[in-house]
Structures are given as C-alpha cells and as structure tokens.
Amino acid sequence: MELWFSEYQTKNVKLSFRVTDVIYTKQSEYQYISVFDTEDFGRVLALDDTVMLTTKDEFIYHEMISHIPLLTHGNAAKVLVIGGGDGGTVREILKHPVKEINLVEIDHEVIETSKKYFPAVSCGLSDPRVKIFCEDGIEFVKKHSGYDVIIIDSTDPIGPAVGLFSSQFYKNVFEALNDDGIMVAQTETPILFGDLIKRIYTDMSATFPYTNLYSAVIPTYPGAFWTFTMGSKSINPISQEISDIPFLETKYYSRELHKSYFVLPPFVKDII
Ligand code: AG3
C-alpha cells in the first residue's frame, strides 16, 4: 500500500511525498499538526497540511533567516523571534554571541511537538539565553521593545499569521527595535505570489529606511525560489561590512556569497 502526503501549494499545484511512517498528528487550538517520515526528505513537520520543515532541507531556511540579519547588524545582543516554535531559527541564532533570545510562538503544541520529534531542530530551546512566550506575536511587539534584531518566522499569510504581514505590524516592529535595529520576515515565493511580495516590500519600505529582499533555494517550499524581506533602521545591508564571528558553522549560508543573496533576478526586480 502506498501512503502519500500532499501539500496544495496552490489550488492547482501539489507537492507530494511518499510517507514511510506517520509519527504524530494532533489538532491543536490553532492548527492541525502532523509529523511523518518520508523516503527522500527525512522527517517532515506540517501545520494544516503545509510543510514547515523537513530534516533534509530545513538548514537552508533557518540559516538564511538568521545569519543574514545577525551578521548585517554585527553586534546583536537581544533578538526576538516571532513564530518559529520548532526552534530551528533559535538554534542558528545561538551560534552568535547574543545575550538574550525571546521566542514568541502562539501555539505551545508546536514547541512540544518539535522538542519530542525534532531534537536536532529544537535543541536550542532549552538554552538559558532563550525565553519562550506562548502568545500572539502581533500583540507582543506592541508591549515589548529594545531588540537589535526581530525575525518573523511565520507560516503563510493565512489564518493567525495574516496580521504578521500587515503594514501596522511592520510599524510596531520598527518601534520595538533599537535605533540600529533590523527586522527580517519570510516572504514567500515570487514565482507564485508576486503581488504579495510587492505589497510586503511597499509596506515595509514605507516604514524602514532600508528595505531589501534576499533569496534562497528551498526545495520543499512552493516555487522553490524563496524570499526574505529585511527592513533596517540605520544600517545599509548592501554597503555594510559583514561582521566576522569565528566558528560560524553553516551548510548553505556562506560569507563569500553574503552580498550575492541580495542580488535579485530581473523578474523579481520587476515585481517590487
Ligand atoms: N515557516 C514556514 C514558511 C512557509 C512555508 N510555506 C509553505 N510550505 N506553503 C517555517 C517554519 C520553520 N521554522
């Protein structure tokens, strides 16, 4: 018997994996959580049947959403992660000499699931520098400030994540950042969602003096060509020297390529 998982990336495009084992499923207060093993991409975490990570390629997303803003900033002490309950982003941030990480994940079941079934992803969550808040990130940024870097490691802009893609949210993030602060958000694929990317870019650049897109290839996300949008209050990420921290162990991010991640193909430049 063949067992397959499919994500509807659009109404008309599916990404499917042959499933070797269903490990865990649960309907939480917010979403349907599933964990399963696959033949070629290892273990998968899906939320509402949408792929959040696979153990084979999660390093690409988590390295790129963390190291680019942190090395651009160069001296981040206090970092906020919104979403990211699996812990992959926290794991990467902990490779930097930060003092404090606040993780704000709305669904504590995601954290528990990752701790139990993805030990190599969630390993940083028990570090003493990490404080976990199980609340809505949209409200959290209105009440907290003093961050050097804020990372929006969200799901797609549907359901509870919609507000994480709004111009008012970007304004609140701006206020929550220190004067040289930097934010970055995962911003989907220009192959399928050009209008969304244009709106995010327009909204973020209405608030942040420097707004830049960068990209990575993520085979298990829609379009495979994925973007991150970075807003910076005073540091220009393009002219900034990249800070040199020793022993940054990465598999996708590379210092030599750092500037090139911001170089956009013409079709993306045309979108924004
Ligand atoms: N955040 C999910 C990115 C969106 C993926 N979208 C999709 N598969 N349709 C990643 C969570 C990992 N920390």
How would you sum up this structure, described in words?
This protein has 272 residues and is of the alpha/beta class. It folds into two domains: 4-54, Spermidine Synthase, Chain: A, domain 2, CATH 2.30.140.10; 58-238 and 248-271, Vaccinia Virus protein VP39 (Rossmann fold, 3-Layer(aba) Sandwich), CATH 3.40.50.150. 27% of the residues lie in helices and 32% in strands. It contains eight helices and twelve strands. The strands form two sheets. Strands 8-7-6-9-10-12-11 form a seven-stranded mixed beta sheet. Strands 1-2-3-4-5 form a five-stranded antiparallel beta sheet. Strand 3 (32-38) and strand 4 form a beta hairpin. Helix 5 crosses helix 6 and helix 6 packs across helix 7. The longest helix has 16 residues, at 58-73. The chain starts with a strand and ends with a helix. The model has no long low-confidence stretch (mean pLDDT 97). Bound molecules: 1-{4-[(3-aminopropyl)amino]butyl}guanidine (AG3). 1-{4-[(3-aminopropyl)amino]butyl}guanidine is lined by residues 50-53, 84, 86, 88-89, 153, 155-156, 186, 221-222.
